[in-house]
Amino acid sequence: MKVSMISALALGAAMAAGAASAQSLNVVCSNEQAWCDLMAQNFKIDTGVDVAMVRKSTGEVLAQIRAEAGNPKIDVWWGGTGDPHLIAANEDLTVASGVDVTGQLGWSQNMTEMSGGKAVGVHVGLLGMLYNTEVLAEKGLTAPACWKDLAKPEYKGEVTVSNPQSSGTAYTQLATLVQLFGEDEAFKMLAEIGANVNQNTKSGSAPGKMAARGETTIAVGFMHDMVNLKKQGFPVEIVSPCEGTGYEVGAVSVINGTPNLEAATKWVEYVISAEAQSAGLEVGVFNIPSNPAASTDPEAPDMAAVKLIDYDFATYGSSETRERLLARWEAEVKSKGGNFEE
Amino acid sequence: MQRTAGLWLLIGLAGYALLPWYMVAGGFWSFGWLSAMGGDARPALLWSAGGRGWLWLPLTGFAVAGASLMLARDQLAMARGLVSAGALGLALMAAQGLVILGNSTRLGLLEGATQPGMGAGALVVAAALLFVLTTGISGLGRGRGDAFITGMIGAIVALVGIFVFYPMSFILLRAFELKGGAGLGVTEFLPRFFAGEIWSPACLTGLGYCGAALNSLMLALATATGTTLMGLAFALIFTRTNFRAKRLLRVLTILPIITPPFVIGLVLILLFGRAGTITEFFAYAFGWEKTRWLYSFWGVWLAQMLSFTPIAFLVLIGVVEGVSPSMEEASQTLDADRWQTFRFISLPLMRPGLANAFLLGFIESLADFGNPLVLGGNFNVLSTEIYFAIVGTVADPAKAAILSLILLSLTLGAFLAQRKWLGRKNYATVTGKGDSGRNAALNDGLRWTCYAVALPWAAFTLVLYGLIFFGSFVKLWGYDHTLTFEHYTRAFGIVYRNGIHFTGAAWNSYFTTLTIAAIAAPLTAAVGLATAYLLVRQKFTGKDAFEFSTMLSFAIPGTVIGVAYVMAFNFPPIELTATGLILIIVFVFRNMPVGVRGGIAAMSQLDKSLDEASITLGANSATTLRRVILPLMGPAILAALTYSFVRAITSVSAVIFLVSARYNMATSFIVGRVENGEFGIAIAYATVLIVTMLAAILALQLIIGRRKLRRADRIEAH
Hints:
Chain A: Keywords: Signal. Chain A: GO terms for molecular function: thiamine binding; thiamine pyrophosphate binding. Chain A: It comes from Pseudotabrizicola alkalilacus. The complex is a heterodimer. Chain A is of the alpha/beta class. Helices cover 43% and strands 17% of the residues of chain A. In chain A, strand 1, helix 2 and strand 2 form a beta-alpha-beta unit. In chain A, 58% of the residues are buried. By secondary structure, chain B is mainly α. Chain B folds into three domains: 128 residues, no CATH class; 237 residues, MetI-like (MetI-like fold, Orthogonal Bundle), CATH 1.10.3720.10; 219 residues, MetI-like fold (Orthogonal Bundle), CATH 1.10.3720.10. Chain B contains 30 helices and four strands. The termini of chain B are far apart.
């Protein structure tokens, strides 16, 4: 009896320790940790609203808000690629905040419109390639310039891309190639590239990091991550593919059913303001902000200098297209490559 | 029986009439509810009188209990009354909780009724009803008529039921979901369960990839065998040789379990990756080709060996220590040499330790998520497949549930195999009789084998940790080795100005993590060892099922547990998400199996006559447990405490979905930094955590101390 009583008491104590309910904004952030922290801190200073912030990847956030639907513990979800935000909007997991986006760049307004005001575009990330200059020189290879180059036989076992079944980055690449070359041509090319691929990583940012450390030679990923790696001092060069490239639109969404709608709306207004977005430079955020008045780093990718495709988010974000393309990828591409280390 | 049941009845009534029934704002211990007793913090009595009539239901249990205590003619009738009272009260209480949710009702009953999640009052009432029930059961003569034993079984069954089975049912049901919301059935489950892509043996025949299930199985077998042998080698060096640097070795064996995830993988990449230091060296010195061999089965296996050998060691050291020297002496007196003594006496007596170490290694390897993610390359295992079935670009909870079931069935297989191997033999060697011999030393061959296996491994560990330490002080690990304190000041900066301000980015999660781990560790050890005691020392129906059910939560991958907890505990009756408590609970029930395994291994060695002597001398089970068994369980308690403390700090996958803005954990902070490529700050944080945990473990060792099994633990000279 003693043991059970002690454990009952301990449980009671723990239970009490757990329940906290200070009135404040709970933000889940899918950007880089430093950027998350800085934004939370600035928001608190500028608006006086207390913010509690946690960082999770977009897939994790989506899984969590699905499980919490009806009684959410999160008020607002900021950052990360747009696709999961659009899925959440379609499933009514998020709610329109009614924030005015007329001063934002065109793609941000498009995103907002497409989601019925539920997901507001906050930044753009451009897809690109990266190679390790040291390894490239050591192996006597030429630098890639186009998507097509990745299929060259000389790169056998030197290319790392992520797996579109787990990573949004890789899915963006898949959808980009399909939009550039047409579906059949794109899958033919992907299969050829697949024969060069040494590993399909689970995470979208992993290939870039592996190339930076010389674990692989060429990687595909988002350019703002690559700028970050280059600035850290790794021997890498960034390539914007000659045929043109696709992009992701990062977003901010208010969770459906939040008790703090007012503060959440304030957060959305805040993160699309020029002042808030400019602060990203302090912590090395190199994606393109949605507010045209926000300042950017000279080394950050510039939308005007890169050949962009007219990315069709409505078609390629829909679950039918997605499932069909992924099934085809599994059948025609996955089986081709990634088998060099065994 | 009458006194115990009466006491619980009073406690329950007090909880019903005085404590706030629902969760209160600000937490129970803030005592803010005292002033709000008329408002939201009303006890059940006031609620049921004022509109929530269904809260009368639990009271019926107490009414029946009170009636049987007062009116029953004999003990048996009273016991029967108490059993039905407890069962009725609990059933009604659960029913009202499951029917009336936060914002809706189920089954079309009581439409329009709402209620928040249960709180302190409900907890006390439920506990009281449970113990009334178990006291009644003991009155029926079960559990040798000991209310303490039946109460303990009841409490553990209830806890495991609520915090393991209830949440798991949410996710496992999804395995049987039919496409398009057509209900449940096995028509889709069976083909998916046995799908070729999961079980494919293609890699063995050289034709592509193996299925994730087969990969997981091969990896788990290799890791479990490896860690058990390595752990045994270390344990033998500690207890059967006069090796000089035992202390250093001890620290080295503990280091890997106190290492946050991803860190070992990162160091291995820096050493053995295609651009790693050692790879570069061999390429330079011998012209070997630089390959990516690390990103495969072998890389994951190496990382798992490093991570899980300490667990095997912790289980084995207690058991190897416990093998009685008098048996070994008897063997030698009968003219057996040292090898024969080891082979035919000591080794067979270590079987419980070997079996439990193997089982833990097997399960740990199956559920491991961090190492396969970092080093797996295209080597897919179940745990990563499950993770990406939940968070991937196409979320497929049904697939995740099916893969989890496969993982569970592998665990069940290992568990049954272990039971069969141990058989029904008796491994007791600590008998309480005068037992002051010397442990036999190992024969030379075995001793040198142990040295040859364990010492290079220890040296390897030392190198790894030297590198981690080094990595936290340089600008860009691997490229720019300028020394700097920058990572530490960013993570753990402190400003002295008008008092002390913890300005570093990591402080918040650091304090939360330590608090939660410190609360979870003793609870985990208590629940785990109590379960072990029941399993080894008590006989009751359904014991095997009980034993396996306590292993379940450990075998299920963290990601699945995390999502299941969110699904189960986000709504009333038990609303725990976004609190610190849910983290504590998940740690207690996830890590409890280690306490159970270690406890079972250690307790199998304690002869039953010790208990019997104590009981003959008039002590009851509770006193026997406290005064006789527990003092002999020092190493097991230490292992359970250490392990649960450490795991609460280092586990990742279960925590990802449960950390909230207010309660963030160190690992999710580290993972975020690693994802962003900021290895410096991640490793600096990891180093601080390692030092913290090491200090905590050493303090624990000092407090718990060594158990004295014999007058002197001596080992014969070589």
